């Protein structure tokens, strides 16, 4: 067997080896992309859900919120982000909250625990008493 390793490859073996490496690594890359897209969709849903839960009133205009979010993301250069997709991401998060348990600790820390925090909610100041007179 060691003798075969030292033997030069034939042209057919070269082609076969390259084809096998390509197929195996392309399949592995496809699986990695699918995992990453699934996690991306879940995390986006998490952010939307968390933002909406900060204030009960947000639930009343959730659909409008998703339209506004999609519009802003498109303006910032993200392609194929529509409110319909954002709605699906939010639903995906709500149906499968247990995905949090399969996220690697580092990704969980980066995505869910503050490295990419949600913006602080802006609260309007109540009118002062002097403005009521």
Q: In a nutshell, what does this entry contain?
A:
The protein is mainly α. It contains 5 helices and no strands.
Layout: helices, strands, pairs:
Blueprint (H helix, E strand, L loop, with lengths): L1 H5 L4 H43 L8 H14 L7 H13 L9 H8 L21
Low-confidence segments: 118-133
- Per the principal axes of the C-alpha atoms, what is the gross shape? elongated
Total E-strand runs: 0
Percentage of residues in DSSP E strands: under 5%
Would you write up a description of this structure?
This protein is 62% helix and 0% strand. It is elongated. The N and C termini lie far apart (97 Å). It has five helices and no strands. With 133 residues, the chain is mainly α. It has one domain (12-116). The chain has helices spanning 2-6, 11-53, 62-75, 83-95, 105-112.
